[in-house]
């Protein structure tokens, strides 16, 4: 930690750099205590170590959730200095006695009180949710910033996001995004337009901005990535190789088999990217596949479906555990109605449905199921051309 209390109860923050002589003078003439647990602290510093306080006997301090690295200490100091330079009232390592929790930075403004957490170590989702809930209990809005070193890029515009990473998704700027920071390069990152393909791969746009040139409460304009070509390649790979990884107990593949469908010939209209589907943990090729089998598969041209019918089928699959929504600490109340409407709208644009009245659709064309590899190729190309228009 960077802040401690001296014997008079005054809060002391260590400077970023301190000479050996000055450090010896401080050590010889003062005693320091933890603002959280009141136990004695010592100063640790060296040629490679950032000057910081540490518990003398290393007790289990309730406000210290994990050990701090130089990366973390440097990062939160840089963020604190940046806020102060922008005339933001901020306190470094503020201890909140009501919840026995210490915020990396506590920000106070006319809009509210915010706890800025620069998270460098990977913690459990349970701990993330608990810490978030405690802040909200006392009216403090948490702003979680992910250490960029923990963001794994798989390929161009593709990121490996675990359940831990997804917890950082928030709508601080009225758009779902994940904020990152790298103290080594001094830039803040913004991960936006998140479109998950699977539990492992999420496509997104990522932009870095130098912290010195960024103003608080501003968001750089991020263009949505053109990932249709990449998405189709990934979708094709799923069709070809998912059979190799099938779990016989997987209800989805069993349902495909019972409906005389297979991943290799599943129409590409199943598994399309739509806005907002970051809220659904189940891959698009599965949740859209369930809707296809439960609602569209047995219906013929000229028949009708309603949005309520589709939502009922979706929620029924939720109750059975076949479709799962993401459990997000910062976005707890999510409704997937808008996502379902987006998918139906896409089917309208592709000519399969027609919205006769609000929420009621007639089937204009039945989604064609390819019978061989040639038909798969031709139907895929035809759909791709429609979507690019």
From TrEMBL:
Residues 17-64 form the Competence protein CoiA-like N-terminal domain. InterPro entries: CoiA-like_N, CoiA_C, CoiA_nuc, Competence-induced_CoiA. Residues 68-214 form the Competence protein CoiA nuclease-like domain. Residues 249-362 form the Competence protein CoiA C-terminal domain. It comes from the Bacteria. This is Competence protein CoiA. It comes from Peribacillus psychrosaccharolyticus.
């Amino acid at each position: 930690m960077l802040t401690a209390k001296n014997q008079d109860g005054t809060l002391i923050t260590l400077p970023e750099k301190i000479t050996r002589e000055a450090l010896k003078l401080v050590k010889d003439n003062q005693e320091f205590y933890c603002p959280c647990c009141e136990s004695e602290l010592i100063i640790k510093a060296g040629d490679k170590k950032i000057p910081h306080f540490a518990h003398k006997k290393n007790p289990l301090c309730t406000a210290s959730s994990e050990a701090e690295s130089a990366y973390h200490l440097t990062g939160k100091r840089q963020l604190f200095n940046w806020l102060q330079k922008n005339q933001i009232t901020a306190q470094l390592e503020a201890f909140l006695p009501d919840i026995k929790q210490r915020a990396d930075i506590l920000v106070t403004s006319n809009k509210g009180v915010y706890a800025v957490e620069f998270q460098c170590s990977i913690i459990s989702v349970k701990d993330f949710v608990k810490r978030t809930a405690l802040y909200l209990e006392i009216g403090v809005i948490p702003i979680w910033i992910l250490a960029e070193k923990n963001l794994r890029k798989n390929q161009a515009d593709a990121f490996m996001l675990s359940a831990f990473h997804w917890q950082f998704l928030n709508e601080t700027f009225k758009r779902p995004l994940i904020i990152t920071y790298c103290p080594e390069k001094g830039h803040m990152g913004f991960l936006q337009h998140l479109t998950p393909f699977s539990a492992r791969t999420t496509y997104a746009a990522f932009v870095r901005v130098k912290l010195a040139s960024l103003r608080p409460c501003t968001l750089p304009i991020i263009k949505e990535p053109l990932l249709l070509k990449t998405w189709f390649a990934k979708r094709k790979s799923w069709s070809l190789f998912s059979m190799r990884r099938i779990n016989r107990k997987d209800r989805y593949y069993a349902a495909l088999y019972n409906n005389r469908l297979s991943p290799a010939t599943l129409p590409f209209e199943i598994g399309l990217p739509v806005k907002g589907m970051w809220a659904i943990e189940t891959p698009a090729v599965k949740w859209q596949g369930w809707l296809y089998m439960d609602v569209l598969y047995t219906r013929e041209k000229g028949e009708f479906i309603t949005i309520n019918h589709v939502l009922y089928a979706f929620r029924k699959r939720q109750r059975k555990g076949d479709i799962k929504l993401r459990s997000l600490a910062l976005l707890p109340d999510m409704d997937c109605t808008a996502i379902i409407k987006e998918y139906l709208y896409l089917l309208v644009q592709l000519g399969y449905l027609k919205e006769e009245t609000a929420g009621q659709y007639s089937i204009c064309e039945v989604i064609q199921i390819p019978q061989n590899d040639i038909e798969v190729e031709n139907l895929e190309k035809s759909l791709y051309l429609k979507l690019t228009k």
